[in-house]
Amino acid sequence: MRSPLIPEMATQEVQLNETLAHLKSESESLKSKLEEERAKLHDVELHQVAEKVEGLGQFVMKTRRTLKGHGNKVLCMDWCKDKRRIVSSSQDGKVIVWDAFTTNKEHAVTMPCTWVMACAYAPSGCAVACGGLDNKCSVYPLSLDKNENLAAKKKSVAMHTNYLSACSFTNSDMQILTSSGDGTCALWDVESGQLLQSFHGHAADVLCLDLAPSETGNTFVSGGCDKKANVWDMRSGQCIQSFETHESDINSVRYYPSGDAFASGSDDATCRLYDLRADREVAIYSKESIIFGVSSVDFSLSGRLLFGGYNDYTINVWDVLKGTRVSILFGHENRVSTLRVSPDGTAFSTGSWDHTLRIWA
Amino acid sequence: MTINTLAKGGWHREQMTCFQKMEKVIVAMQDPDMGMKMRNQRLLITVIPHAMTGKDIIDWLMQNYNINEEESLHLGGFLVQYGYIYPLKEPRCLVLRPDESPYRFQTPYFWTSTRWPVSELDYAIFLAKKNIRKQGELMEYEKERYSVLHKRINHTWDFVVMQAREQLRASKQRRKADRIVTECQEQAYWLINRPPPGAPNALDMGLERPSSCTTRMTLWPLNAMICCSNTIILSVRAYVLMCRFVKYSEQYQNHDPIMQGCLPSNPWISDDTAHWTMNAALVPIPTRLRVERWSFSFMELLSDAMGRQEFMMYLEKEFSAENLCFWQACEEIRHGESSKIVEKVEEIYKNFLAPGAARWVNIDSKTMDKTLEGIKHPHRFVMDDAQMHIYFLMKKDSYPRYLKSDLYKSMLSKAIVPQETKKSVFPFVRRQRHSSPSPAQAAEDSRSKGPQAGSD
């Protein structure tokens, strides 16, 4: 005997499909309207305005330090605010804290998982956070007792349902922002491990994030396998802007120092600059001879230079304003997986699948 | 231990992007008009047609992509590493030599992207052929793999041997030059797809992604779009916006150590930490560049501990120091522990907002009412509106006056401009690199000193 509910449910389903179709077409028309409005204002390119700017001379940057000690691919690194210490993590589960200036190792932690893809230094310099295939982000206070096992005081903070791809402390040691292969980003209270806010909107793995250096400091940008870079409001959890011009996964995003724009690096072998006020891409950094993907990007202090670490083992240095490549740096013997400029801009550090880290200046 | 993504048999998306790009280069290199000039190459007594030298490859890449020799060698090296070009002289060594060594283009049949995923059966046939052709021609690792395969696909072994014999028979009927070429092509293909142990695996691409994710609701982007069209100020012309980048770079250029160097020297280059010592958080006399930076924006002033200190002194003179104190207290709520929010909000109310409070801040009535209402149910962002109001008050009013004040001007005039350290006479003698106390150590020390140390 047929249940009387079934015809109703069928009608409901039809209605739902119609609503979805209607919403989809409305979304498409809004999109094209936005493009129209943007096109009206799109009267000049960045490199055109930069024509009158003086060109950059020859760049001489060399490896000044090589940090050896990891037993496998280096996947991630971060600088301490003291401008000389760094934390790095690797495929074999080891997380090491170095004084990069002397190349001494100061602390080492062995994580219970391999592929530690994310690590971050706390603003106070007294703790580090890391995670990867364990789907978690854990905070380790840095103990000065040489005999103490750092893992003893470990605090599990974030819990995702897939691998942790990136993590970053916010302005203090008390909050951590994470991104994950489960397609979400999340903000956590370190002390309690409580989830403060989650960010949904990516259609696939989120691979990277960066916090905005703004005066009211409430936004961050994330990039993912869906080729999108999304800007989020940390308070409400809403995605406030979205950019989709890359042709492949976005491996790295980094804000321009003023906070008005951000750069991204992708597997499509290009870096791009997106202006938040113009709400569009304003520059592409690419060359026909560059075939392999960009794993990580960062700006020099003034924002004039963009450094990209590539999967072809090199670092390309770009003139952000003119869009030209200033220099190519060789040295690593396998792909460059992570790149960060130091807090005072005196150097930048790279980590590579060749098991080493290098400091360039 | 690498996570073997090839075992899953799926197309690895990242590799496909690279393959497509490399194939584009290869096709361009073989273009009848603009491509490379190929010639016959002599290999011992045989003449191989359609070959080129390593030097030819490098020259062509240099010319066509406008790159220097080092970069060209690097790029060409990848074309060989990925099997698009293979060496004739030393077929086991997939390296590009910038000399007269002969190379050939790999036939598309043997491109890694064409024959994916790699077939175990094909590998077995390849090894069998080698084995039959010359007993003992298999390398040690190939012998091991051969026996492993023999065990694993034992049921089809007759087929494997039969195929191997057939292929060998067919190849005997070809000209020697063609035979050599085909052998090289096949060898190159297997060197890449089944590299010898210890050799760098060109196809190692790390973790597979994306991981199995359900497709997310397509309604989210719609949400974003609606927000976009409401919040973006589309009336700002692109020209104005682009100029901001130029202006920012110009303003900060002198402060960018990588671009302009830093005084007295870059610690990473000279091994001298003087630059860091002079620019420590709190110093008796700051450097000139640092004080100049405070004038770039209010945020620059506030993010520098010393700048904040100076600004506080100025505000005290003007009897408006409570504004900065209030702002700092609000920051502590926003970025502090969740558990301390309630008590901190109470403190702020007592000190800054309550009628007759000791350090009462001047907020407009609308914001004050909203804040007082919010305090009844305190949360992390309850002070946001009030904090922003005071921030912009300081930014628009006190900050510009501070920059014109004697306090700032005198700080600027007595600020240090360090002497550039001349490169040492004996550049080979490396300075001793001194270690510094770690931040964790400093925190421990101040804790152990206790309350007598006083607060910063």
TrEMBL record, chain A:
The keyword Repeat applies. Keywords: Coiled coil, Repeat, Transducer, WD repeat. One of its GO terms (biological process) is signal transduction. Residues 13-47 form a coiled coil. The keyword Phosphoprotein does not apply. Transmembrane segments: none annotated. It holds the Pfam family WD40_Gbeta. InterPro entries: G-protein_beta_1-5, WD40/YVTN_repeat-like_dom_sf, WD40_G-protein_beta-like, WD40_PAC1, WD40_repeat_CS, WD40_repeat_dom_sf, WD40_rpt. WD repeats lie at residues 67-108, 157-198, 199-242, 243-284, 294-328, 329-361. PROSITE patterns: WD_REPEATS_1 (PS00678), WD_REPEATS_2 (PS50082), WD_REPEATS_REGION (PS50294). May interact with RGS9; this interaction stabilizes both proteins and increases RGS9 GTPase-activating protein (GAP) activity, hence accelerating the deactivation of D(2) dopamine receptor-mediated signaling. Belongs to the WD repeat G protein beta family. This is Guanine nucleotide binding protein (G protein), beta 5a. It comes from Neogobius melanostomus.
From TrEMBL, chain B:
The keyword GTP-binding does not apply. It holds the Pfam family RGS_DHEX. SMART domains: DEP, RGS. Keywords: Signal transduction inhibitor. Residues 32-115 form the DEP domain. GO terms for molecular function: GTPase activator activity. Residues 297-412 form the RGS domain. CDD domains: DEP_RGS7-like. InterPro entries: DEP_dom (IPR000591), GGL_sf (IPR036284), RGS (IPR016137), RGS6/7/9/11 (IPR047016), RGS6/7/9/11_DHEX_sf (IPR047017), RGS_DHEX (IPR040759), RGS_sf (IPR036305), RGS_subdomain_2 (IPR044926). One of its GO terms (cellular component) is neuron projection. GO terms for biological process: G protein-coupled receptor signaling pathway; intracellular signal transduction; negative regulation of signal transduction; regulation of G protein-coupled receptor signaling pathway. PROSITE patterns: DEP, RGS. Residues 426-456 are annotated as: Disordered. This is Regulator of G protein signaling 11. It comes from Neogobius melanostomus. The lineage of its organism: Eukaryota, Metazoa, Chordata, Craniata, Vertebrata.
